[in-house]
Write a structure and sequence with these properties.
single chain, alpha/beta, Conserved hypothetical protein from pyrococcus furiosus pfu- 392566-001, ParB domain, two-stranded antiparallel sheet, 13 helices, about 50% helix, about 15% strand, rod-shaped, disordered N terminus
């Protein structure tokens, strides 16, 4: 009711009993995760005491009503078998309904930080708002809105892992500095396993980034055999090659093999003729 007073949208102060089947879900509802145990507990409470706080709805252009705020109560009421729920009717546009739904969830702290970011992004995209305009409507600073939206740079796998391990929003912002999906998932596993607080996580990320900037270790030294093989392909002076042949022929002669070679220069090149007799035995 306070939200309706703030926007001056209350159609009346009267509480209407509305059939649950006539209430459509708010398409801009920012909350996506509903704890099943919590819903069951609320459902049992509603069975015993009824819905103590009315839902907020607006008339739908498709007929019936569209939920503005109170989806958890609506779900629990359905689980409890209620056919009607108490509602307060707002005279609200689609944009106003979206803003109210988001603010209502933020005020109740019903959203996790990823849902907050997704709700803000949806509001900006749906109605073409700037970050400044969204900040004014939600009663936040522009920097707070920008920091929330940065969280959406995480891939879905990283978001799921952060939620699974119960890491905080500050953990999530810190992990944005790590490049690559696998590296972030590995870091999340380490932070969760070691139960690092935010300050410890920041120090850990700094270590990872410093390690990534280190120059690669020098290659292991080549073996003598590899160096000898490689050397055969780097002669740039043909005289070195000719001298090698000459030494090889001399070695063969000293070993008793009557080898020889002739060298003739012709046509701008060199012709080599090497003779090695058959050696029996």
């Amino acid at each position: 009711m306070a939200m309706g007073k703030r926007y001056g949208l209350l159609e009346s102060r009267r509480v209407h009993m509305v059939k649950v089947d006539d209430i459509r879900r708010n398409p801009h509802q920012p909350r996506t995760v509903f704890d099943e145990d919590g819903l069951n507990e609320l459902s049992e409470s509603i069975r015993q005491y009824g819905v103590l706080q009315p839902l907020t709805v607006r008339k739908s252009s498709l007929g019936g009503f569209e939920l503005v705020a109170g989806e958890r109560r609506l779900r629990a009421s359905k689980l409890a078998g209620l056919r009607e729920v108490p509602c307060i009717l707002l005279d609200a546009s689609e944009k106003q309904s979206s803003v109210i739904a988001l603010v209502e969830n933020l005020q109740r702290c019903d959203l996790d930080f990823f849902e907050e970011a997704e709700g803000i992004q949806s509001l900006i995209r749906q109605f073409g708002l700037s970050q400044d305009e969204a900040a004014r409507r939600l009663g936040k600073s522009q920097s707070a809105i920008a920091n929330k939206l940065r969280l959406l740079r995480h891939p879905e796998e990283v978001t799921a892992a952060i939620r699974k391990h119960g890491l905080t929003e500050r953990h999530a912002r810190c992990l944005l500095r790590i490049e690559g999906l696998e590296a972030r998932l590995e870091a999340i596993g380490h932070v969760a396993a070691e139960r690092l607080n935010v300050a410890q996580t920041e120090a850990y990320v700094e270590q990872l980034l410093a390690r990534a900037e280190e120059p690669p270790a020098p290659a292991a030294p080549e073996s003598e055999a590899k160096r000898n093989i490689r050397t055969l392909y780097v002669f740039k002076d043909v005289r070195l090659f000719l001298n090698s042949i000459s030494r090889a022929i001399d070695t063969m002669r000293r070993s008793g093999v009557n080898a020889s070679y002739d060298k003739e220069e012709e046509g701008g090149g060199i012709r080599l003729t090497i003779s090695i007799p058959n050696v029996k035995g």
